[in-house]
From TrEMBL:
Keyword Mitochondrion attributed: no
Name this protein carries in UniProt: DNA-binding response regulator
Gene3D superfamilies tied to this protein: 3.40.50.2300
Keywords for this protein: DNA-binding, Phosphoprotein
SMART domains (UniProt xref): HTH_LUXR, REC
PANTHER family linked to this entry: TWO-COMPONENT RESPONSE REGULATOR
Modified residues (4-aspartylphosphate): 61
A Pfam family per the record: GerE
Ranges where the HTH luxR-type domain occurs: 156-221
Amino acid sequence: MKEIIKVAIVDDSKVTLRNLAELIDYDKEIKISGTYSRARIFLDAMKRIDKSEYPDVVLTDIDMPDMNGVNMILVAKAQYPEIKFLILTVHDDESFLFDAIKVGASGYLLKDDKISILINQIKTLIRDGGAPMSPIIARKTLDLVQRIPESKGKVISHELPELTEREIEILKLMVAGHNYEQIATIIHVTKNTVKKHISNMYNKLHISSKAQAIKIANRNGLI
């Protein structure tokens, strides 16, 4: 039996909170662990929650009155690095997208996505280590990566000399929001080969998560 995925939701719209919680809770593999109408309410609540009850995934809006979702993730990731944060918003602006990625968001989804897609993306994130993104967001991210000037590519090779061309290619695809299976399809290798490349890359960079890899990519001009 698959382990139940605990999901918390942070959104200043009570209607959104109620509807999302009800729809997601229908899935037998997911449990709603809490709903919060403000970022600060969520952060305060986390201080009182036993570690065994921490959510596996937090769905959060960006535009909220007391503290926006990006700043909330920045604060929360420093205290709870094991928790995955997914942006769920109406905003598809590139600035919001990259601000979210830079602070450690594991994915970026739009509120007009079907609930079935959202549920599948949550499961993929926890069980396969994907980087969930709505199709329009993934296209924007990939387009931006492809527009990176050639000179930046040379800087990357200089600053990350230990990474092979294949590993840099996979890192770019991770930044673009592709999961293991999608990367395998794009570069015509098996999923296990992709996992091996990523494991080697993490060892070379002395990191242990996709969020850290994305930060390094940003620092070296991949974003």
